[in-house]
TrEMBL record:
One of its GO terms (cellular component) is cell outer membrane. It comes from Taibaiella soli. This is Outer membrane protein beta-barrel domain-containing protein. The keyword RNA-binding does not apply. Residues 465-767 form the Outer membrane protein beta-barrel domain. Keywords: Cell outer membrane, Membrane, Signal. Its main location: membrane. It comes from the Bacteria.
Amino acid sequence: MHNYRNPLLVFILLVLPFLSKAQSHAFSISGSVADTFNNAQLPHASVTLLRAEDSVLATFTRTNEQGQFSLHPSKGGKFILMISFPGFADYIDIVKLNEKNSVDMGIVPMVSKTHLLQEIVVKQQIAAIKVKGDTTEYMADSFKVKENATVEDLLKKLPGIQVDKNGQVTAQGEQVAKILVDGEEFFSDDPAVVTKGLQANAVERVQVFDKKSDQAEFTGIDDGQKTKTINLQLKEDKKKGYFGKLNAGGGTDQYYENQGMLNAFKGKRQISAFGIISNTDKVGLGWQDRQKYGADNNTITGVNEDGGIYTSFTSDDDFTSWDGNYGGQGLPKVWTGGIHFADKWGKDDAYHTTGNYRYAKQNLEVEGNTTTEYTIPESRYFTNEHSNKFSSGQRHEADGMFEWKIDTTSSLKVTVNGGYRETQTSTDYQTQAISNDADTSYNSHRTLTSNANSKNFDATMLYRKKFAKKGRTLSINFNENYRENASDGFLNSFTHYYATGRDSAIDQHKVNNSANLVFKGKATYTEPISKVTFLELNYSVGVNNSNATKSSYDKQPSGDYTDSLNPMYSSDYMYNILQNSGGASFRFVYKKVNFAFGGDMSNTAYKQKNLSTDTLYHRSYEYSYNNFFPRINFNYKPNKQSSVNLNYYGSSKQPTIDQIQPLRDNTDPLNVPIGNPGLTQQFNHTVAARYNFYKVMNGEYLWSNASYTYINNAISRADNVNPDGTRSYQYINVQGNYNGYLYLGYNVKVKAVRIGARINTNVNRSKTFVNGVENISNNNGYGIDFDFNYDIENKLSIYFTPGVGYSDNKSTISTYTTSYWYTGNDLTVTYQLPKKIELGTYISWYMRQRTPGFEENTSVVRWNAYISKKLLKKDQLEIRASVFDILNQNMGINRYAQNNYVTQTNFNTIRRYGLFSVIWNFSHTPMSAPQNNDSNK
C-alpha cells in the first residue's frame, strides 16, 4: 500500500520489529568494508541492496565500528550491492542468492578517489537509474528506443516521466517547466524545441530535479521555490560535431510541411538552429514568450505578491500554441526560424553568454460564425455573427545574456531582449440580434482594417555579493521594460434597427498610439540569525508610466477625414504609477521543514490625466494606496518521494489603461465599452495547497493541487442592454467575487500497462450588474479523465485517454441556465511490421451536449493514419505517407460561459488531406570513437 496512508504505516512500523525477530534470516549477505591501501576499517559505510530486475530497494544497513555488515533480504534472486563511503569511489557488485542461502563477501576493498588511477581494480556496473540526493538520473542507453528516435521518444520510456499527446512533459507528477541541454536553456525555456528536435542517441544522461530559484542557489537559503527541471547531458562525442533532422513534406490540396533542426557542439560552445515552412497545423517548435514581441495591445499593470509593480501583456492573436501546433482559428501559412548560441570560457567558466534570434511570419484566413446567448433580467436574447478575416504579420526578436563571475563571492548578470512586429488585418462582420420572442432586433454590417506595428525592449542587471559569514548576502537588481504600439485603420459600419426603423452609419479613420515604460530597482539583504533561521530584508522603488492616444476622425462630405476629430470616441490619456516598497521575512530551514512568514509594506501613488482638451473629458485624478502584502509559506518533505506545501499571499491588481481611459470605444458599435476613471485597485487573498508523492521505479505518483482566491474590491462589469439590442458596458468595483480550483492526478504502472486518472474542478463566482440589477453568476466546471498506455518494446504501442466533463453555468437574474456535458476520447496506436515498416493511427472523438440556442450536432471524430518505412544505415532515412482527418469531420468549434452570457464559435479549420514526407536524420562526429550500441541494454 502507499506510504502516505498514515494509519497503515504506523501499524507496520509497530509490528515490523516483532515480525523481524520472529522469523529466521533465510538469506544473508555479509562482509567487511576496508580501506586496503591504508589498511583501515571503514565504520558507518552505507550498504544498499537493490533488486537487479528493477533496481527497487531490497534492504539497507550501515557497517559497525569494525566495518562489518550483514544484510537479510526477504527472498533470493539477483541483486545489486552498492557500498558508499565519503571520499571513496562507490563499490558496486552483482550478488546472486539462489541455492545458497548466504554469501560471505569477505573484505570489500574501497578505493580512495585520489588513488583511482593506480593499479587497483574495482568491479562496477553502470546502473540504469541512480538517485543522487534530490536528483534522479537515467542512463539513456539503458532504455532501448528505435533508431533516430527523438528525446521525446526517450522520455516516454523512462519510469516516472510522461509525455502527453501535445508533447507536454510530466516528471514525478509535476509539469516540467524547463528542459536544459548540458545545463543551458534553449530558446527561452521552450521544451518542444529540445524534445522534438534533439536525437535520443546524443543523450548520455537524463537528470530530473527540482531546480531552486536563482536567489536560493545564490544565498544557500532554501526559499521553497522550485521548478521541475530536466537536464539532458550529452555524450562527449556529440559535443564535437553536429547532428540534426530535415523533414520535407507535400500533399493534397496544396498542403506542405517542411522543417529542419541543426545542433553543433564544440566543447562548451553550442549552436542550434531551426526553421519551419508550413500551412498545416505544424507552425512552430513552440513560442512560450509571445509577450516579448511587444505585439499585444492590452496592457495589465499591477503589483505582484512581493509588492513590486508588474506589467503583463495579453493577446488575441492565435499564432501558435505552446507546443508548436497551431491552436487558433482558420487556415495558417507560416515561415518561422531561429538560432541559438551559448558559450562558457575563462577560469572556472567565469564568463557565460547566450543569445537567440527568432523570426516568424504568418498569413491567416479565418471564416466563422459566433452565436452568443445573453441573459438579462427574466429574459434573454441571441446574437449571430458571421465574420471573414485576413491577417498578415511578421515578428523579429533577439535576446542575449552575459554573466561574469567576478570572483568566488560576487557576480554580475545582464540580460537584454528586443522585438519588432508589424501586422495588416482586414475583417468583415455581419451581425443579427434576435430577441427572446424570435423577433429580429437589428442587422449590422461592419468592416475593420488596421495596419499596426509594435516595438519592445527589456533589460535587467543583477549584482550579487556573498560575505564572509555564510548566509549573509546582498543582491541589487534593476529591471526596465518598454513597449510601444501604433495602429492606423478604418471603421465602416451600417446598422438597421427594426423596432424604430432607424439606420446608423459610421465611417471613421482610427489612429491609436500607446507607450508603456516600467523601471524598477530592488535591493535584497539576507542575514543568518542562527544555523536554521534567516532574515531577509528588501526595499524597492518602481515607476510605471503609460500613455494612450486614441483618435477617431469622421469622414466629411468631401471624402476627407482631416481635422474632423470626434471627441466622443477620442482620448489622450496618461496613467503613471510610483511605488515605494519595503519588507522583511523570516525563514526557518531544518531538515524536512521549510517555513517562512513576512510581508511587504508599500505606498503606491497614481496619477491619471486626460491630456486632450478637445474631448468631452478633461480631468486629473491623483490618489495613493498603502498596502500590506502578507506571505506565509510552509514546506514539509517527509522523504525524497513526497512533499507537502501550503501557501498564503496577498496581491493587488490595478485597472488597465483601457478600463479607466474615459473613452467610448465604437470599434464594435453594437458593444461599446465606456472607460471609468474612478475605477480602483482590487486586492486578492490566495490560499494554495499541494501534495506530491512518487515512486520512480514503477512510475507511481499522486499529485494534488488546490487554490482559492477571495477578491476584495474586485474589478467587474456593469452592462446595459438597450431595447434595440445594442449593449454598452463599464468596469466597476464590487465585493464578493472568488475563484478556485482542485486538481488530483494518479498514475501507476501495472505490468506492461501505465494507468492514470485525473480529476479537476474549478469554481468561479462573479458579481456584475445588468441593466442596474445585481447579477451573481456561478460558472463551475468538473472533469475526470483516464489514460491507459500499453507498450511492447519495438512492436506495439497503445495510448487511450477517455474523459468526461460538465460545465455548470447559473445566473441569478434569470431562470435560464446553460449547462452541458462534454466528452473527449483519444486513441493512438503504433505497430511495427517486418522490414522496418511502421503503421500508426490517431482517433479523437469529441462531443458537446446540445442545449437551447446551441442545438446543432457538435460531435467530431478526427481520424489520422500513416505508414512509414526506414532506410539506409542506422535507419537514418524515413519515408512516410499520412492521411489526416480521414472522415473529413474536423470541425472548428469553441464554447465558453462567463458572467451572464454563453458563446459558441464555429470556424474554418484544416480538413482532410494527405501528406508524403521524407525525414533524414544526420550526424557528424569526426573525433568520436566507435560506439557499442549493444552495451548496457
